[in-house]
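Subject — a protein and its fold
Encoding — discrete vocabulary of local shapes:
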Amino acid sequence: MRTVRDLRDILGIELPILSAPLGGASGPELVAAVSNVGGYGVIPLWGYPTDKIRDGIRRTRELSDRNFAVNLNMSLDYRDALRTCIEEQVHAVSFFWGLDALAIETAKAAGLVVMSSVGSAAEARRAQDAGADIIVAQGYEAGGHVWGKVSTMALIPAVSDAVDVPILAAGGIADGRGMAAALMLGAAGVWVGTRFLASPEALIHETYRASVIAAAETDTDWHAELYDGDWPKAPHRTLKNPTSEAWHNAGCPPPGSRPGENEVVGTRPCGAEILRYECYTPRPGTDGRVDEMSMWCGQGVGSVRRIMPAAEIVAEIWDDARRCISVRNSSLE
């Protein structure tokens, strides 16, 4: 089993805490804030044209001289995006939503660190065999798009027993207690998403942020095909809201027969319409019924109770994790 020290050496960090690539919510400001305090930021730049990917990388570098990764979606054509990451010599790439050995080989040949997201021990072994430097084991509790169906508590020890590279625990981890538990289960660090939605650096609408702060651990739902838009059949976890409630009450009908389908519920900052069931992260400047849009959120939301700068979130998680581990060790003496 690889340790926290191994992870620190690979990523060049002090604190084994990474910000998850919150699609639409995580931009250069959040990524830089996490990296600048000694953690490691991950910026989602898939689905963008090459010039915007390059701009995202360069803007992050303007805000931080520390290492960070670019997250790429393997269900899309990743080749131009990966080529841009290589040309810009980013420190690492994070691949998710499937395994592509060629992508890993290409990135490593160019000197990039490779992180691969998995949902099972078998997938973790395949990713390691393909050359991944770090495995991101994503549990079912995670918010946003969820690849696996195993809880984090069961997944981490299984993956830890299966591979020799460092493991990042993802899904349901929002505070130091969760981090301490993940480290005890065999993780070398944690991948935190929902907790950072309650930071001022997160690029989300205030209604969305307030909903996160107010939510309980029971206020999320996993959906196979609710907010699909241009990414069909991609399971995801979001906050419960009037849209999901109406869909459940109607018997969870498939796309094409869902209640209120194609109804306009708001507009993007650019003025484009937002349709009900659209896969869209409500950003600042979004207008309309934000509480009826897709508000991605994990089950760790029950531990998120106040807005804090991203740097303070990282420091608090690390300090509390160390305290928990110290108390645990002393209680066993």
Observations:
- The mean pLDDT is 94.
- The chain is about 35% helix and 15% strand.
- The radius of gyration is 19 Å.
- The longest helix spans residues 310-331.
